[in-house]
């Protein structure tokens, strides 16, 4: 198995929804993590939280750790980064590598698969080391014409609408709309 997977694409295209679908259909323990849940005002606590997350993931393996908006946690390192931010990024990198190292098992022992699944709208803001560790990258594009038609159908299935709506025209007018945009519309 891979160390990690990165879902990237425009906002509102369903990256988080795909992760939730994976959680319900996959046969793994699923941890849904946001950067704010790993933040702490106390020195050293954020790194401990990252370490604890991965320890729990290894204990409950096979596990998927989903980090939504991973760019807020693992943005590119710059001279302006605070010490705490650098340490959290370093701990995250170490733990992802450690999770991959745990794939090697002794005879009769169950493999401790831990996969990191990250989602972002801004892949170019990610640290190069994180991108290297999330070795499978999947682009989630805006919906095409057929997908937009299906989205309208799904979102309006329980809504009474006028009979004279020209669906093809509506679908054509929503080019460059995300699934979230269509839902809001």
How would you describe this protein?
With 185 residues, this protein is of the alpha/beta class. The protein is built from 7 helices and 5 strands. Strands 2-3-4-1-5 form a 5-stranded parallel β-sheet, sandwiched between helices. It is elongated. The chain starts with a strand and ends with a helix. The mean pLDDT is 87.
Strand order of the largest sheet: 2-3-4-1-5
**What is the helical fraction, as a range of percent?**
40-55%
Round the Cα radius of gyration to an integer and report it: 20 Å
Termini separation: 40 Å
Shape: elongated
Question: What amount of the residues lies in strands?
Answer: 15-25%
**Mean pLDDT over all positions:** 87
Spans of at least 5 consecutive residues whose pLDDT stays below 50 are none
Instruction: List SSEs in N-to-C order.
Output: EHEHEHEHEHHH
Number of strands: 5
Q: What structural class should be given to the helix and strand makeup?
A: alpha/beta
Described by strand count, sense and barrel closure, the largest sheet is: 5 strands, parallel
The count of helical stretches stands at 7
Question: What's this, in brief?
Answer:
The chain is of the alpha/beta class.
List the helices and strands and how they pair.
Layout: E1 4-8, H1 15-25, E2 29-34, H2 45-59, E3 63-68, H3 83-101, E4 114-120, H4 128-133, E5 136-139, H5 145-155, H6 167-173, H7 179-184
Parallel strand pairs: 1-4, 1-5, 2-3, 3-4
Helix pairs in contact: 2-3, 5-6
């Amino acid at each position: 198995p891979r160390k990690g997977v990165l879902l990237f694409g425009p906002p509102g295209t369903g990256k988080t929804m795909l992760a939730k679908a994976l959680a319900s259909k996959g046969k793994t323990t699923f941890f849904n993590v946001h950067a704010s849940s790993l933040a702490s005002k106390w020195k050293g606590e954020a790194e401990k939280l990252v370490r604890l997350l991965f320890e729990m993931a290894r204990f409950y393996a096979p596990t998927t750790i989903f980090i939504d908006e991973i760019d807020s946690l693992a943005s590119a390192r710059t001279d302006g980064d605070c010490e705490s931010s650098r340490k959290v990024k370093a701990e995250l990198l170490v733990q992802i590598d450690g999770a991959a190292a745990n794939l090697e098992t002794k005879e009769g022992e169950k493999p401790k698969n831990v996969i990191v699944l990250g989602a972002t709208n801004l892949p170019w803001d990610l640290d190069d080391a994180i991108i290297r560790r999330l070795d499978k990258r999947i682009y989630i594009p805006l919906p095409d014409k057929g997908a937009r038609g299906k989205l309208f159908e799904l979102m309006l299935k329980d809504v009474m609408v006028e009979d004279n709506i020209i669906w093809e025209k509506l679908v054509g007018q929503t080019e460059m709309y995300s699934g979230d945009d269509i839902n809001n519309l």
